[in-house]
Write a structure and sequence with these properties.
This protein has about 210 residues and is an alpha/beta fold. Helices cover about 35% and strands about 25% of the residues. It is built from six helices and nine strands. The chain starts with a strand and ends in a 5-residue tail after the last strand. The chain binds 5-O-phosphono-beta-D-ribofuranosylamine.
């Protein structure tokens, strides 16, 4: 069976990309074939290059319009025969043209239990800040398919964790990130094994072998 070809888009440090790469070492199921970023200085690009994976930089300033930029991203994904697009800390908006080219083939990791602390304005530290200020006792991470609604697509996997009273925002972030590093590779593996089916707004996940 051919390995699932994954294209990762990111904007930052890329620890989630690292988790994917580490989990896929010698995997017969999937491989990362392309890493793209909207930020030339994103350390995630270095992580990709270190593994000999082709990378691409798509900075807004280098294009006449966002439309043109997004078209180039789509072109790169297609050129590398990407089957599944993984957003791993990608902060730019994914346009309709890419969503339509990859129906239910784009997944995102979000550092909260969606729909809580998701949607417009909830990105990066803002998510954990919101969780902290609301005095939440639990938070978590969500892997979901990407639709046109920000953080609104069908949920694939979700896991929660407990917040202790003494946890500050960086502590919450650290706990959640650790969880993300487990959850995102797991979702990719399930998809590669054909165990994930979207049914309307819900997702059936077959966790067992049989
Ligand atoms: C993660 O918390 C991800 O959920 C969020 O941005 C962070 C990216 O971390 N959207 P990294 O670049 O993978 O280290």
């Amino acid at each position: 069976m051919e390995r699932l070809k994954i294209g990762v888009l990111l904007s930052g440090g890329g620890t989630n990309l690292q988790a994917i790469l580490d989990s896929m070492e010698e995997s017969s199921l999937a491989e990362v074939v392309f890493v793209g970023s909207d930020k030339g200085e994103a350390y995630g690009l270095v992580r990709g290059r270190e593994r000999g994976i082709p990378t691409g930089v798509f900075e807004k300033a280098d294009f006449a319009s966002l439309k043109e930029r997004d078209f180039e991203i789509l072109k790169a994904l297609k050129a590398h025969n990407v089957d599944l697009v993984v957003l791993a800390g990608y902060l730019a908006r994914i346009p309709k043209v890419i969503i339509e080219a990859y129906p239910n083939k784009i997944i995102n990791i979000h550092p909260s239990l969606l729909p809580c602390f998701g949607g417009k304005g909830y990105y990066g530290d803002k998510v954990h800040q919101g969780v902290f200020e609301r005095g939440m006792k639990v938070t978590g991470a969500t892997v979901h398919f990407v639709s046109e609604e920000t953080d609104g697509g069908p949920i694939i996997l979700q896991e929660s964790l407990t917040i202790d009273f003494d946890d500050e925002i960086p502590d919450i972030q650290e706990k959640v990130l650790k969880l993300e590093h487990r959850l995102l590779p797991k979702a990719i593996e399930l998809i590669a094994k054909g165990r994930v089916t979207v049914i309307g707004t819900r997702v059936r996940v077959e966790h067992n072998e049989n």
